[in-house]
Amino acid sequence: xxxxxxxxxxxxxxxxxxxxxxxxxxxxxxxxxxxxxxxxxxxxxxxxxxxxxxxxxxxxxxxxxxxxxxxxxxxxxxxxxxxxxxxxxxxxxxxxxxxxxxxxxxxxxxxxxxxxxxxxxxxxxxxxxxxxxxxxxxxxxxxxxxxxxxxxxxxxxxxxxxxxxxxxxxxxxxxxxxxxxxxxxxxxxxxxxxxxxxxxxx
Length: 202
Description:
Blueprint: E1 3-5, E2 9-12, E3 15-17, E4 31-33, E5 43-46, E6 49-51, E7 54-55, E8 61-63, E9 68-71, E10 74-76, E11 79-80, E12 89-91, E13 102-106, E14 109-111, E15 114-115, E16 122-124, E17 129-133, E18 136-138, E19 141-142, E20 149-151, E21 156-161, E22 168-169, E23 172-173, E24 182-183, E25 186-188, E26 193-198
Parallel strand pairs: 1-4, 2-5, 3-6, 4-8, 5-9, 6-10, 7-11, 8-12, 9-13, 10-14, 12-16, 13-17, 14-18, 15-19, 16-20, 17-21, 18-22, 20-25, 21-26
Antiparallel strand pairs: 23-24
């Protein structure tokens, strides 16, 4: 992809367009944040736009490590190759919660992303955690499960409406019978967790 980070990386107000990770197991078409559980590095994105990026997993972003914070981002028309997952963002899993990634995504939008595997917008790997705050996920497609978001076994998705309503709607994936093109906003696998929080009238 365009960026491979192993320490700390801050991106602000940038546009990442038509980048790709060119291999059969390519990860992170725009940014691959590669940090283990002990890393003190941090990936932050503020006001960035990601469009037309692609990889096998994580068409725009592939995230490992515990310190991933994305604010005010736009993800549009990113996609995966070779049956890959997480057309916009892939939050990497692990053998346990200590090994898995964590990500906070605030005040962002995901539209028209397309995964040939699961997670039309976001894929959350086993034991990983993603927190979405004031973030909308609409009109994304997965050829497999989780047209909008796929939450793997033992993973956690928290959705928070803090200052405005949150819309996760009109995403399409496949159902349990393998029929594609059906409404499928969030898919939860065994022992996964979905937490919904709202403040005020949101």
